[in-house]
Amino acid sequence: MDKKKEYSNGEVTIVWKSNLCIHSTNCISGLPNVFDMNKRPWINADGATTDEMINQVNKCPSGALSFYLNNNKQKGEQEMSDVKIDLMENGPILVNGKIELKNSKGEVIPTETTVALCRCGSSKNKPFCDGSHATIDFKG
């Protein structure tokens, strides 16, 4: 089930898409006053400054976290002219940039500016990574 939740401090809204999350814990370790899996809601948009939250959200490797500024609803996406692809050690393929991803039928799969694609073959959310590589001890 795809979940999309939004959390706002009035100035910025953080958007979380659970189906894209690879559980890297970058958010939790980077801003524990904002991101805390032991609390409900798990995102406290009043736990840091707007700039601190934007900087941390931009470090999300999968694109599960994004943001928009409330005053103009401008999405917090990186503007990139080139696509960057990184193979994460023992993990997913990270694609950064504006891409068009199609399934085997030629249908476009909606993506964010950053996506983590499965390369271990065990994801239950293919073609996206769901963190299964860690549970099967994937090496690559």
Short descriptors:
24% strand, four-stranded antiparallel sheet, Alpha-Beta Plaits, 140 residues, 2 domains, single chain, globular, three-stranded antiparallel sheet, Ribosomal Protein L9, domain 1, 3 helices, alpha+beta
Overview of this protein structure:
With 140 residues, the protein is an alpha+beta fold. It folds into 2 domains: 4-75, Alpha-Beta Plaits (2-Layer Sandwich), CATH 3.30.70; 84-135, Ribosomal Protein L9, domain 1, CATH 3.40.5. Helices cover 12% and strands 24% of the residues. The protein has 3 helices and 9 strands. The strands form 3 sheets. Strands 1-2-3-4 form a 4-stranded antiparallel β-sheet, with helices on one face. The protein has a 3-stranded antiparallel β-sheet with strand order 5-6-9, with no helix packed on it. A hairpin with a 5-residue loop joins β5 (84-87) and β6. The relative contact order is 0.17. Residues 76-80 have low confidence and may be disordered.
Compact summary:
By secondary structure, this protein is of the alpha+beta class. The chain has helices at about 25-30, 50-55, 130-135; strands at about 5-10, 10-15, 65-70, 75, 85, 95, 100, 110, 115.
